[in-house]
Amino acid sequence: MEQTRLKKIVNKGLQIAFPLFLGAAILVWMYRGFNFSRVWEVLSGGMNYGWMVLSLVFGLFGHLFRGWRWKLTLAPLGEHPKTSDCVYAVFVAYAANLVVPRVGEISRCGVLAKYDGTSFSKSLGTVVTERLIDTLCVVLITGVTLLVQAGVFASFFKETGADTAVLTRTFTSAHFYIIAVCVLAVGGLAFFLIRNVAVFARVRGVLHNVWVGVMSLRHVSRVPLFFFYTVGIWACYFLQFYVSFFCFGFSENLGIMAGLVMFVVGSIAVVVPTPNGAGPWHFAVITMMMIYGVGKEDAGIFALLVHGIQTFLLILLGIYGLAALPFTNKTKKL
Question: For residue 171, is pLDDT > 60?
Fold first, then answer.
């Protein structure tokens, strides 16, 4: 009994510690020898805060769209939580992911179960469906980007005369090891998720309810609105990233296609289980910015500030969601 309990404690500790260690290790490697005094210089006068605020507004609407879309997928299951609760649950989920990657998917189902009496297993099924749709969106965006950008990289080096040695310096053996570790981390995450789902399914036979939640998409009554929300989510995510280019003099001239390429690479990088993609996201964005001719130090400043400010937004929204949920549910029937 004690050994089982100890094993569970060790597993939970590893699930928290490993993502933090992986993200921190990549960040330390990427920012070794970095001049952090330049970050303060940019913050104190080299950044356009108006564009940054607009970027954060797009980020906020991306979460709002996700909460509104979630309510649509729950309706066919006979679950009708408050719209505000769906949104606040999404806020809490993204903040929770900063502590333990992917735990937010579970926590937001728990929020609706607590405040709206929503079936936990059914709502979990809708979250699984949502993630499948997100994966499909990333695949489609990636495919379109690859097709559209097939000749852009070649013309970029030809027209700008950029030194192609940048590619050689960028894709070094050390970069390869970072990618390899990230791939292994994703594999480990998949293993733990599959194992946990298997254990979860054996307890009280909830697998059927999860499957019902997964299939809820077939019965969504307002399909055009669902499609609109889905497009809105990814449009806002992209605009949140792209608008941040205009915050800095060294990135404001990067075109929308450069933004699309970096957005795709960054979206793939955040699959790696670290808090808000910290580390892998920085690695991906810095690497791509260097390919597009931005200096390594400037690229590092961009990644550090943009990711840091966006993470701060997630923390604020999570705190707001936690505070608002009890307030907006004071009249909930017992």
Answer: no
